[in-house]
Design goal:
Number of domains: 3
Distance between the termini: 58 Å
Helix content: 40-55%
Radius of gyration: 25 Å
CATH class of the largest domain: Mainly Alpha
Number of helices: 13
CATH architecture of the largest domain: Orthogonal Bundle
Order of helices and strands: EHHEEHHHEEHEEEHHEEEHHEEEEHHH
CATH topology of the largest domain: Transferase(Phosphotransferase), domain 1
Largest sheet: 7 strands, antiparallel
């Protein structure tokens, strides 16, 4: 007996023939449920199981969790339900397996193979559109719904107790701020420190609004803390690594916003990627160095393919998780931070791509990374961005990177 979560987790490792038998059984069972007027849009997939009896697979859903309708769903609604399940990673099937499932489900309704293939092509096109829109929809939904309580002075959210009053949360934040030690990061507008907040070890980031035009702009759009919270929720839903977002707090002044806070899980064993690079990169073998470069490229390209633009993609805004001594073997060990700079649904034009590459390059001086190693990092990206081969692009990158070095040296970050 195999439960659905275990089936999804181990699906790629199963033999192809066994996977096809399972898909055929699920397709036949879906057709039987459809004939019985069961609403296929709300199937309890997480509670379903696959049993093997006499070299034959049987798929079962709990009868008490099924919803019966007065009429059968139309084929369009069934395909829409399949699209939603596939887009939310509820189905682990490949495109060929989806076609096989639809063949077993639709063939008894009189559709031939050409009609089924047309349905699969339409489903693939709709899935491509949905995958492009999904990150932006997740982000906007979090912006809109995750501030369930508020008052004239405070608005916020705490994940472990959504009904916590804003006054109590603000008081706990003030007490944590007074007892905090040396800030982990600090600038003229942002401060990050580690503290114990409401019996939780958290990283607190405070966003100050020092000038009046900063406060006016904050009054006309969501605060940076709320944007960082919503971005963290969207990244976690998309399975992109980031520290767990725990909540946010917005404090209003008399007429305009005063400051805001965002809270995330504290990871004491993690290092920002720039610190990891200076501490461990030179000790790695050439093969491990190539693995670490590939992992960072993959982590950045995951944002690119999801149409997410990080406005400040320097190495200090990416966390490296242990183990450190063996190099970064997988991109899932890299977690993005400073999420208030993320833009969802962004068009990754050449300017933004070059700006991100400049921010990565400008995080390390020439004495830390040679020109050959920089070329080795950028060279595989030319398959995705062909304009990186142009001579004018290379000259622009050199000039822009040196300008970034001077800026980071003044801020004591890229020295």
């Amino acid at each position: 007996m195999i439960f659905w979560p275990d089936l999804v987790a181990g699906w790629p490792q199963r033999p192809v023939r066994e996977r096809r038998r399972m898909v055929c059984e699920i397709g036949r069972r879906l057709h039987a449920l459809w004939l019985d007027r069961i609403d296929l849009r709300c199937l309890p997939l997480e509670l379903s199981v696959l049993r093997r009896t006499n070299d034959h697979w049987e798929w079962h859903c709990p009868p008490d969790q099924l919803t019966r309708k007065r009429f059968r769903l139309s084929t369009d609604r069934v395909c829409s339900a399949l699209l939603n399940a596939y887009g939310s990673s509820g189905l682990p099937f490949s495109p060929l397996e989806v076609e096989l499932l639809l063949r077993k489900f639709l063939r008894p309704q009189g559709l031939d193979r050409a009609d089924i293939r047309q349905v699969c092509r339409s489903l693939a096109a709709a899935l491509q559109v949905q995958s492009a829109l999904r990150p932006d929809l997740l982000y906007r939904r979090a912006l809109r719904t995750e501030s369930s309580f508020g008052s004239s002075l405070y608005r916020g959210y705490w994940a472990y107790d959504p009904q916590l009053s804003p006054g109590l949360l603000a008081g706990a934040v003030a007490q944590a701020e007074r007892s905090a030690g040396t800030p982990l990061k600090q600038s003229h507008r942002n401060t990050v420190w580690h503290a114990r907040l409401l019996e939780r070890e958290v990283a607190i980031k405070r966003f100050d609004l020092p000038r009046w035009h900063h406060r006016v702009r904050a009054a006309l759009q969501p605060s940076r803390a709320r944007r960082a919270w919503a971005a963290g929720q969207a990244l976690r839903a998309l399975h992109i690594a980031t520290p767990e977002p725990l909540g946010f707090l917005e404090i209003q002044g008399r007429f305009l916003p005063s400051r805001s806070y965002v809270f995330s899980a504290y990871e004491p064993d993690s290092l920002d990627l720039r610190t990891w690079f200076l501490r461990y990169y030179a000790k790695l073998s050439p093969a491990q160095q190539r693995i670490s470069q590939s992992a960072f490229r993959e982590a950045w390209l995951r944002l690119y393919h999801a149409r997410i633009y990080h406005g400040d993609a320097k190495l200090a805004n990416c966390l490296a998780r242990p183990p450190f001594d063996a190099g970064i073997e997988r991109a899932r060990q890299l977690a993005w931070i400073d999420l208030e700079d993320l833009r969802f649904g962004a068009w990754m034009n050449p300017y933004r791509v070059l700006r991100n590459l400049m921010q990565m390059n400008g995080s390390l001086h020439d004495r830390h990374l040679t020109a050959a190693e920089r070329f080795e990092f950028i060279h595989p990206l030319r398959q995705v961005f062909p304009y990186l081969e142009y001579g004018v692009t290379k000259r622009l990158m050199r000039w822009w990177t040196r300008k970034r070095w001077r800026k980071e040296r003044r801020r004591r970050c890229g020295s």
